[in-house]
């Protein structure tokens, strides 16, 4: 089934969008959840890439926690 847009309607819509310029107001995802969702936009599938992604994320979280623990230990030993 076609969308039945005539060339004239398509041209009017293109001109309207160029006048609205919505791409100038686009700010992308703001929250961590939104960023996580769009980070998967190019994901094609497969177990190995997904496993690598999960391990990388877990490694980053553990590294962040370790830095926090090191800060606590450093301040308590002083």
Structure description:
The radius of gyration is 24 Å and the shape is elongated. It has a domain at about 45-78. With about 80 residues, it is mainly alpha-helical. The mean pLDDT is about 90. The N and C termini lie far apart (about 75 Å). It is built from three helices and no strands.
List the secondary-structure elements in sequence, H or E. HHH
Strand content: under 5%
**Straight-line distance between termini:** 73 Å
Q: Helix count, per DSSP? A: 3
Name the helicity range.
Answer: 55-70%
Basic shape: elongated
List the helices and strands and how they pair.
Elements (H helix, E strand, L loop, with lengths): L6 H14 L11 H7 L8 H31 L1
Short description, anyone?
With 78 residues, the protein is an all-alpha fold. 67% of the residues lie in helices and 0% in strands.
List the defining traits of the structure above.
3 helices; mainly alpha; 78 residues
């Amino acid at each position: 089934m076609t969308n039945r847009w005539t060339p004239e309607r398509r041209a009017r819509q293109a001109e309207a969008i160029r006048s609205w310029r919505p791409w100038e107001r686009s700010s992308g995802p703001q929250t961590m959840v939104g960023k996580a969702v769009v980070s998967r936009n190019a994901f094609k599938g497969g177990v190995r890439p997904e496993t690598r992604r999960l391990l990388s994320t877990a490694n980053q979280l553990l590294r962040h926690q370790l830095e926090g623990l090191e800060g606590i230990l450093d301040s308590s030993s002083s």
